[in-house]
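#lab-general

N.A. 3:47 PM
ok so I finally got the sequence cleaned up, no stray characters, all 426 residues accounted for. can someone with queue access submit it? mine expired

B.Y. 3:52 PM
send it over

N.A. 3:53 PM
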Amino acid sequence: METPVAAAGIYISVPFCKTKCTYCNFASGVFSKAKYRAYVDQLCADIVGAHEIAAGQQAEFVAAADSIYFGGGTPTILPASHIRQIFAALRARFDVARDAEITVECAPGTLGPEVLDVLLACGVNRISLGVQSFADEEARAVGRLHTRDAALRDVEVLRRAGIADINLDLIAGLPHQSAQSWQQSLDDAISTGVPHVSVYMLEVDEDSRLGTELLAGGARYHAHHVPDDDLIAELYEIACERLSAAGLAQYEISNFASRGHESRHNLKYWTRQPYFGFGVDAHSMLPPGPEPARAGIDAIRFGMGDTLEAFLSAGNAARIAASSTVSIEGALEEELFLGLRLNRGVDLAALRRRYSSALLAGTHQKIAKLCSHGLLQHAGIQLQLTPRGRLLSNEVFAEFLAPRAAPAGGVTDARARHELHTAPVG
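B.Y. 4:20 PM
back already:
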């Protein structure tokens, strides 16, 4: 008897921002408002044609959806009419569950009355606020346009509007950040009483202006005021302790929530449930189609191109910039490095039910090695990262990835970071 396919999560990419933050390594930027209409029209055309897009990748179209996530970019800078148009297309194409979690990322200060009204009318029940820091100097240093007071005010506005599921994003490692200022940001986050906080350590790579400057040893973008790695790790550990003590239990490397308020959409990524992404740099993972050639394939992954220009000018097939199949062996690797992101870890008994002993044999030595180094631990039938393992999680995950497991556009590709939610946007 075949296992029924789980309902899908839907990711909507809105790549528009009022300003480009220096730490941001996502496919977003500042564009003329004249491009909004063309983008939304193409986005909605793709949503309406989702069945054909899936078929073109030899993937199964999953019509049922129980989570929707608007990311970016800053979705809330779109006009209310555009937001309404996107939701109309989604509900026309997908069977959206009545109790679906519907999240919209928002930069503090962009929640005008008209936009908030349309979000409520469209069923939005969760908002993720990209605060990053409650210290105004730190926020300004990386190009954020809001202040501490504006962020706190938005939390109250959302509560009065009836939205209780609120997430606050914070970054450990911003320029000018100190242990004292970090404690104050945590104080402010905790004092709001929100049920979810995400904490990310600053990501340094060549895909952001700040990262490029740090790698070059320069001083632009306040790079010379970025805390060192030891302090960033200390800030992360402080956050883990403070948030846990405040009733926000860590359930994933970067995420903390009170019971029942975990992000249902992001859990889909970490537990390998199907999801369908629409828009610039959006990625999808769907079950393989029924064709005989799909035998032995666990999933199909594909992603859209990462530039607005290509998205608006390319035809349907050309907009798919990367596509790959996930073998059964690849699925096991993904279950390990994605599942280990969760504090509960990976259920080893479930792996034994799903995969052959011959396939699992290759992982035993790797697990033993990581346990001996204090990076993994056994808790009954669960395999979990240790606290030290969370700080060195990239090194742990790399142990489970064979060289062939990183195809262009796969989950290990840098462009898929928003799928794994390892860095904040908005």
